[in-house]
Amino acid sequence: MKDGINRRSFLKSGAGAVAGFTIVNSGVLAAGNSPNGKLNVAVIGVAGRGGANLGGVKGENIVALCDVNGKNLAGAAAQFPQAKTYTDWRKCLEQKDIDAVVCSTTDHTHAFINVWALNRGMHVYCEKPLANSVHEARMVREAYLKHNGKVATQMGTQIHASDNFRRMVELIRRGAIGTVKKAHVWCSRTPEGGSYLPDAGPAPEHLDWDLWIGPSPMHPYNPGYFGSGCLSWNRFWDFSSGQIGDMGSHMMDMAYWALDLRFPTSCEAKGSDQHSDTCPTWLTATWQHPANDWRPAVEVNWYDGGKKPGVPSEVFNRDAMFKGVIFQGEKGWLVADYDYRIVMLRGDMTHYTSPKPEELIPPSPGHHQEWIIGCKTGKPTLCNFDYSGALIEHNLLALVAYRAGTKLAWDAANIKATNCPEADQYLKKTYRPGWVLNG
Fold first, then answer.
1. Which of 36, 261, 383, 427 maximizes the CB count within 10 A of its CB?
2. What is the pTM of this model?
3. Domain range annotation of the chain
4. Which CATH class is domain 162-191+241-362+384-427?
């Protein structure tokens, strides 16, 4: 492999794929049902991240609002009095004039809303993670691919739209640190362990607890499940997928895009003692990825719960970095986080050629705006459900390996660990009666 990727290969696998964002689609996608060309948008989950996402699309026609919390719903309805209101997202999706859906609910209902909306031909923006199991991630991705070219999708990994993210990708793909054979990604957030919370009495009148539980097994009401937002529920198996599902969606995205990853050939993971109720309080994982048309095979590693990569100490001060990614190349290292990137070389940079202006990955108009433009024109979105569905499936496979307790030989085409039949039970969730994923 050459030190730098040739221009044609880079344009094909990196900047060019994004540069396609400037090309107008032939008009497969509708500009919206409203007479002024704006999208008719339903927002499901309207507080917390939902409130931020509502703000990101408020320039369109907000025609439906849905939340299981009546107080949250009333607050949003006061801002958009013309919108119809719902507590059950299934009834919301029956509204005939909806063009697009923004999903910002708790993690365990993401896949359901995504698949149902796609099955109805609606564009979808969904907060990370797209799904809560390997099977769900595959279902969301396949539902999108059935409608590819007809709907626009975007996962809410907002940092993907940052300029720093793009420049990091260019450095890796143009060979600034030579051939990359390993990447290390970490987030030091340490969740609590413990058990499902005790019965705290009846839910308040403004909260539909049955709908909050949704497809998950029933648990008695306890405000501790959501008092601190996602940090409250994302430690429980029935409601989320731990830090690899939460922050892994952001942090692993940095390595996933830069190295043009798809499905791994193997995955192994270690973590804290297994608990039937809660995700591990720390997790380390390793995936092996096959070579593609511009790089050799590569190893990707994840660390959370205070664990950090054991790379040479001169590379960076790990104690001072709460989260980040480090690429190990034959000619040096690249360390990055959301706001910075640092290249440290063994020698000079004479092997590296800066991209020409036309080869640069263009700036994003904004993560929400990119999706809105995609809905109206067919221009590609960078975090569509093909890309992000594969990313989430990849991440959640680590939890399967952790629970199975062995290195998995992964057959992505058949969604199967060929060496470990017992892993099947961790790939797919069982839902409460009456809840259908592919509805």
1. 383
2. 0.92
3. 21-159, 162-191+241-362+384-427
4. alpha beta
